[in-house]
DNA sequence: CGCGTTTGACCTGCGC
DNA sequence: GCGCAGGTCAAACGCG
């Protein structure tokens, strides 16, 4: 593969188009899901430099309370009566400048805190999810291996050096998350490095299916399959499987969380093939923001439990097939698990969810923060490499994610 | 020469 | 047991 770098699509660089694409949208030529290149216009650029340093997290209130500070709007509101002398004007503008600068610093600091907080929350959430998964598994001890072969060496949690000790307890089953995206590019940029290890002609599809392995770390079990849709070749279907055993760049972490969330949902619903779509969408949309930009479907007809995130609908009110539109970004109703037709096993999850959802300010701030992470400017070269690596990105049950296009 | 891709062979699971 | 299909391996190949 030669010039992938220009041809990869990357979701992250869509600069919010996914969320606001209500008008006629021309076919997306390139999408950067996880562009990691520095974004010039993002005011958080400076934060990227030190954003990976996680110190103790400032408690939530500090972040929100800063808004009560006297805010300098930056508007020069001083009356410009002719009586004011030039010197006074100069002095005023100087003080104005210094005020502005201090204000800028304060905002930057606040942004930094927000970023740190977001990282912490993401991590905590993933840990919660892992615990929830474990609890669910304990609740149905003999419930099923969803996949026929879940014991290859790479699946064993003992062999992989996972960073989260709790992960060693997670029984692995393979679930897949399929993501459909419209793209002419042969690959999507997802923040990871991949190496092609095979290609096969799939039955019933003129387009070959390519197999990739994650090469960001030796022994990383994550694989992905890339295939074009038989009906519409502009649609690219990418399927992820497994969890990384190494730190991930933020973008890759995001998609890994989606995969994990989907896997947790699929697996926690046991092998029953009748998980309702509303449940799936509700769960996913609360689990991961990407899901809110897509429509999702569950499939039990495939050999592996698979969930499909469909980014091809463009939210232009034309929901075809049986696909279900997802709720808005970070919808405030957060009881995802209650919709799964199962008793919520973890009161922790509930309380956290309640705490988060009950605070609109927090929700808004979080949504904005996440938006800034998942929706930065498009990278120029479509580079699929890491920008800051998130230390100890949490991993979750074994899963696969598929990107596809409709 | 090293690294990544290509591609045919091989392995495995599944249905008949 | 046999054939098929999906998935993986690894030698050959090409590129920088
Ligand atoms: Zn990996």
Automatic annotation (TrEMBL):
Cellular compartment(s): Nucleus
SUPFAM superfamilies: WRKY DNA-binding domain (SSF118290)
GO cellular component, as recorded: nucleus
All residue ranges annotated as the WRKY domain in the record: 183-249
Entry coiled-coil feature ranges: 83-131
The entry's keywords: Coiled coil, DNA-binding, Nucleus, Transcription, Transcription regulation
Primary location recorded for the protein, binned into one broad class: nucleus
Keyword tRNA-binding recorded: no
Region (Disordered): 140-165, 384-406
GO molecular function: DNA-binding transcription factor activity; sequence-specific DNA binding
Biased composition (Basic and acidic residues): 148-164
Claim: Coiled coil is one of the keywords in the record: yes
Composition bias type Polar residues, residue spans: 395-406
PANTHER family: WRKY TRANSCRIPTION FACTOR 36-RELATED, WRKY TRANSCRIPTION FACTOR 47-RELATED
Protein name in the entry: WRKY1b transcription factor
